[in-house]
Amino acid sequence: MRRKGIERSWFFLWVWVICCLVLSLSCQHQKRSALEKTRVLPIKKAVFVGFLPAVTAKEESGVYRNPLSGSVVSAEPVSRDVVLKMNDILFDRVTAEKGYELVSRTQAMGVYSSIVASDQNVGMPFINVIQEVGKAFNADAVLVGYIYRWREREGKDYAVDRAASVSFDLQLVRPFEGAILWKGKFDKTQHSLSENILDMGTFLESGGKFMTAEKLAMIGLQKMLEGMPSGSEE
What we know:
The protein is an alpha/beta fold.
């Protein structure tokens, strides 16, 4: 009898353990499903704020904290011309490849300026400003990012005193609650193959040459856009 009682106790213990495992897996699945649903939320309309300089050409290099992601990076002055050119390229690429109904940067920055100029919005966190910009256009997302470094190549195709170096990121922010739907970052300084044998991919993409900053940036932008969700995704 005692043995049967022990066996029965073990039986109920195992049943309890199995039930707990099933319940735990079920909860994890539900959480994962909810997260996956958030990540693949269809983006039909997006506001294009585009790239902003983390440090303007009139400022000095230093440590910069991204107000959206909270990440801390080293940033250098970036010229207005570089920012404008990168935004033109980004806008055309997103328009052609992602299928969003895209609100132009001119419209977006007009609303942005009016929000930050309002006395009642003094000190408003950047994420809240971005949310308000998105809400003004009833958009599903706002595309915004920073250029942290744009160091031009010094030298020629096969011999340089200083190689090109660029760093930038992008985020898709959902206006309703400020969630980051997607983010991407590119941070690259080109090295010769003898300096870094592990950088074979960049070496092949450059044809064995030292690239300009723009060429290096285009490689990074292409990789980032490949991971950005499209407007047609369900």
